[in-house]
Design a protein that fits this description.
- With about 425 residues, the protein is α/β, with parallel strands linked by helices.
- It has three domains: about 110 residues, Immunoglobulin-like (Sandwich), CATH 2.60.40; about 40 residues, no CATH class; about 230 residues, Zn-dependent exopeptidases (Aminopeptidase).
- It contains ten helices and 15 strands.
- It has a six-stranded mixed sheet. A five-stranded mixed sheet has the order 5-1-2-9-8, with no helix packed on it. A four-stranded antiparallel sheet has the order 3-4-7-6, with no helix packed on it.
- Strand 6 and strand 7 form a beta hairpin.
- Helix 4 packs across helix 9 and helix 7 crosses helix 9.
- It is globular, with a radius of gyration of 24 Å.
Length: about 425
């Protein structure tokens, strides 16, 4: 009888996810919609516990998808009344234990999310803010067509009123601007533990913690939004990481790792990498082989009707600009990392890392230290040191956007 019981327990362990068995599901107790302005709406999920989540937008039709890990609903979600952005809301279970919430939208939107604790009995909230450019442009056109009308402009509490007046007498802050999107990629995950330190520390756990710290810092920045390529302990294929960055319409891609050199445990220090010329050439060949599907990457320029030489020149121009921006970003992050610890390479290194191959997204890979070095392993295991690393990367991002903010973003206006 005892042997039978042991076999049964072994069967459950091997064929079911032990985490999902033990973890108590998070419940969505309620969802509230708040109309901040005609251009901006806030969704507040009341939760029973902090939730791991991801979200992304889709086009044609316009949708916002929010995935909540290990979560279930208590009651059906109600769509907002008289919303200028949201047509409908629906939900469905995903991967047995997860919940997917889909917002059908009237216009394209940008979205930003963050978690907050609450003093209420439920204790936790997921807040999602969505905004759009389309309504702002319509409002601007209305004012231009009837400049004599004194129509007030509503300004959100987080935005500072502009004192500048344009030539047509319109408030300068009427022009809506989107958030910058930063994709943060925690290396490895799931069955791929990455490097393992002498003390048993796993790279996948360290880099995920740093990625989450960095995402929290980005979320606090006005005009920025963070997306996590993986937000839990699961494996994501390298090419899929690039695809997710494009799906999230990222402006920057930062991959976080911890280095290892088993042959010499004294090696230490942080490093920053960008894509090598060889990797860029390889990606160009792959890209041009599928040029009929490349219009989105080229800003709407179709390559299907271009000869190979012209297509190659257009792609080289796109990729050269991305590599230049990647080098600049890498230099800024490397400079700020110097302030908190040792540096292994004094200059940004080039390597053919698959995750850096996005032709249109400036991308860097940050090796936060050598987990094979016992001292650095201990430092990386400390939450305080990991937060210092996240702050250093964030400082480098800020310095990068002082000169490289994409047109149409809030930071570019400032």
């Amino acid at each position: 009888m005892r042997l039978l019981l042991i076999r049964l327990l072994l069967f459950l362990f091997l064929f079911f996810n032990p985490v999902s068995i033990l973890a108590k599901p998070i419940t969505v107790i309620d969802l509230h919609f708040w109309k901040l302005t005609p251009l901006k709406t806030r969704l507040v999920f009341d939760l029973s516990a902090p939730v791991t989540h991801n979200m992304f937008t889709l086009k044609s039709p316009n949708r916002l998808v929010i995935d909540l890990k290990n979560t279930k609903l208590i009651k059906k979600l109600k769509r907002p009344k008289d919303s200028e952005l949201v047509k409908n809301i629906r939900s469905a279970p995903r991967h047995k234990n997860d919940l997917r919430v889909v917002l059908d939208l009237k216009v394209p939107v940008r979205a930003k999310s963050f978690l907050r604790g609450s003093k209420g009995t439920n204790g936790h909230r997921l807040i999602v803010e969505i905004n759009t450019l389309e309504r702002a442009l319509s409002a601007q056109n209305a004012l231009i067509s009837e400049p004599s009308k004194n129509i007030p402009v509503r300004i959100s509490k987080s935005a500072k009123p502009s004192t500048k007046i344009t030539k047509r007498g319109l408030p300068a802050n009427l022009h809506a601007s989107r958030d910058i999107v930063i994709a943060i990629d925690a290396g490895h995950g799931g069955i791929d533990s990455g490097a393992i330190g002498q003390g048993g520390t796993q790279e996948k756990e360290i880099v995920l913690a740093i990625a989450k710290d960095l995402a929290a810092l980005v979320a606090e920045e006005r005009g920025m939004r963070a997306v996590l390529i993986r937000n839990g302990d699961y494996f994501v294929k390298l090419r899929k990481r690039i695809q997710l960055a494009h799906q999230y319409q990222a402006d920057l891609f930062i991959s976080i790792h911890a280095d290892a050199y088993p042959n010499d445990s004294s090696v230490q220090g942080a490093s920053v990498y960008m894509l090598s010329h060889g990797g860029a050439s390889s990606e160009a060949a792959s890209f041009l082989a599928e040029k009929e599907n490349a219009a989105d990457l080229m800003g709407g320029i179709s390559l299907s009707d271009k000869d190979e030489l012209l297509a190659s020149v257009l792609f080289d121009i796109l990729q050269a600009g991305t590599l230049e921006a990647s080098a600049y970003l890498g230099q800024k992050i490397l400079k700020t990392l110097r302030k908190i610890g040792n540096i292994h390479f004094s200059k940004v290194q080039r390597a053919d890392f698959m995750v850096l191959r996005s032709p249109d997204i400036p991308s860097v890979l940050v090796e936060t230290g050598f987990i094979s070095n016992h001292k650095e392993e201990k430092k990386l295991s400390r939450p305080n040191h990991r937060r210092k690393i996240a702050h250093a990367i964030m400082e480098g991002i800020r310095e990068y956007f002082e000169n490289k903010a994409p047109p149409g973003t809030l930071l570019a206006r400032q």
